[in-house]
Amino acid sequence: MTSQTKGFALITGASAGIGAIYADRLARRGYDLILVARNQSRLDALADRLTKETGRAIETVATDLTDKTGLAKIEKLLREDARITMLVNNAGVGSVASILDGQVDSMESMIDLNITALTRLTYAVAPAFVARGAGTIVNISSVVGIAVEMLNGVYSASKSYVLSFGHALQRDLAGKGVRVQTVLPAATATEFWDVAGYAKQKEAPSTMTAEDLVDAALVGLDQGELVTIPTLHDGDGWTQWEADRRALAPGFANAKAAPRYASSVVTGR
Predict the structure, then answer these.
(1) Is 198 annotated as catalytic?
(2) Which of 131, 133, 134, 156 lies closest to 145, judged by CA?
(3) Which member of 22, 31, 155, 161 is catalytic?
């Protein structure tokens, strides 16, 4: 017999890797699940296992979030299904190719998934959570959203977007009962690297397991962190970096250019 539910957590990219571990951990924390990914057979296998192990109610939706019809289906679910209390925006794809090697159509598809789908799903669920005065949104960014030179430029930029979007969400939803956490994984041992074109990264000593990543991210959520970087041992480093970033803002409000941009050309008649 299952215990009382904490509501349904909808997880995108849930069939493998980080998404599948989120499914496992949230089910064990008392959430029922709606698992979203493209591969129905993988979703079914995960749902069957977790149902047997946890007794939670688990639903699956096989859809491609880069397809407008498939994306609209999940948006409608998030707007209308009052059982949903958590959204984990995990679906994403990456690349290690430079602008000289990458195909622009693949980059556009990356933007569709990493940015457009995440944004539309968040816009769908946020008003519903606010109306109920409760809800949790977890957006999966990446440390390359800060260390932008490490991987493909479009991928890094997409993850910088997720981080910036999270800051704005936290501002807009403050005091409305909605928690927003942005998680920044570093290298994590998942199929991400196979798709990105650098499978050997999974074997590197500095690569974290998906289990350790998700467990740490959930502790960060429990502790009320707005931004969680599981691999960063010097937490004060992030705190200071973020404080310095915010401290720059007042300095932007000037009608005149800084003296360093004054023209050195002397004009005469």
Answers:
(1) no
(2) 156
(3) 155
